[in-house]
């Protein structure tokens, strides 16, 4: 495939979710920023309020090994920069994400966490001090031993998941759809807790035209 062909097919963007970084963090250490001096974790309601402003948050129970649809859109085109699963009850749980782009076959990605209350995700985490602390701005997040998962034990700051606008600004590749996007999620154990937003999950996405 020529470079020019790749450009006109979407440039750095792609339709296969397996090209998104995957990882896990404790629910109380992962979140999104709503301003230069403000940060909300996914263990609090504010974290999900902010995600819903940059995509879709879903606050309903998970049954064990049962798919739940987080997003189904069939009009317009856009990008997806990430998806966040529920808090898992133990370190042996697995969260699986399924993504179908433009009516194509669903592609699944399984993510295994670690620790006590891991929350798995697909997407691009960046240090929230990226633009304020020079010695951290160039660091990435450490990988698990299999080199396929991002995990804790990394830069000394909390990770922010990137919204679509920031991804476009920085030239980051994202899921690109032209007419439909379906995103599903399941976990190996049931999750019905709400005290620390455990059952919350969501998709970071945006329509473009």
Describe this structure in a few short sentences.
The chain is mainly β and 209 residues long. The chain has helices at residues 3-8, 45-53, 134-137, 164-170, and strands at 22-26, 31-35, 38-41, 55-59, 68-73, 78-87, 94-101, 107-112, 118-122, 125-127, 149-150, 159-161, 175-177, 181-187, 200-207.
Structure characteristics:
mainly beta; 7-stranded mixed β-sheet; 12% helix; 38% strand
Sequence-ordered SSE layout with sheet pairings:
Blueprint: H1 3-8, E1 22-26, E2 31-35, E3 38-41, H2 45-53, E4 55-59, E5 68-73, E6 78-87, E7 94-101, E8 107-112, E9 118-122, E10 125-127, H3 134-137, E11 149-150, E12 159-161, H4 164-170, E13 175-177, E14 181-187, E15 200-207
Parallel strand pairs: 1-11
Antiparallel strand pairs: 1-9, 2-3, 4-15, 5-14, 6-9, 6-13, 6-15, 7-8, 7-14, 10-12
Describe the 3D structure.
The radius of gyration is 16 Å and the shape is globular. It contains four helices and 15 strands. The protein has one domain. It is mainly beta and 209 residues long.
Strand content: 35-45%
Percent helix among the residues?
Answer: 10-25%
Domain module count: 1
Q: Name the average pLDDT.
A: 84
Number of helices: 4
Largest beta-sheet characterization: 7 strands, mixed
Q: So what's the overall shape?
A: globular
Question: Structural class of the secondary elements?
Answer: mainly beta
Low-confidence segments, ≥5 residues, pLDDT <50? Answer: 1-8, 134-138
| Strand segment count | 15
The topology string of helices and strands comes to HEEEHEEEEEEEHEEHEEE
Ends distance: 27 Å
Rg on CA atoms, Å: 16 Å
């Amino acid at each position: 495939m020529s470079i020019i062909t790749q450009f006109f097919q979407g440039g750095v963007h792609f339709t296969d979710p397996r090209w998104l970084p995957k990882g896990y963090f404790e629910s109380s250490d992962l979140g999104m920023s709503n301003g230069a001096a403000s940060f909300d974790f996914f263990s609090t309601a504010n974290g999900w309020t902010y995600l819903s402003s940059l995509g879709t948050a879903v606050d309903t129970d998970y049954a064990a090994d049962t798919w739940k649809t987080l997003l189904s859109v069939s009009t317009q085109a856009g990008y997806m920069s990430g998806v966040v699963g529920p808090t898992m009850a133990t370190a042996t749980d697995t969260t699986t994400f399924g993504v179908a782009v433009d009516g194509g076959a669903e592609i699944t990605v399984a993510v295994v966490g670690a620790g006590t209350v891991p929350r798995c995700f697909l997407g691009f985490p960046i240090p929230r001090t990226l633009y304020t602390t020079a010695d951290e701005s160039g660091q990435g997040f450490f990988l698990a031993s299999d080199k396929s998962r991002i995990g804790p034990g990394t830069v000394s700051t909390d990770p922010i998941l990137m919204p679509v606008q920031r991804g476009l600004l920085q030239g980051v590749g994202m899921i690109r759809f032209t007419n439909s996007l379906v995103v599903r999620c399941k976990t190996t154990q049931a999750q019905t807790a709400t005290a620390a937003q455990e059952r919350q999950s969501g998709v970071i996405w945006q329509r473009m035209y």
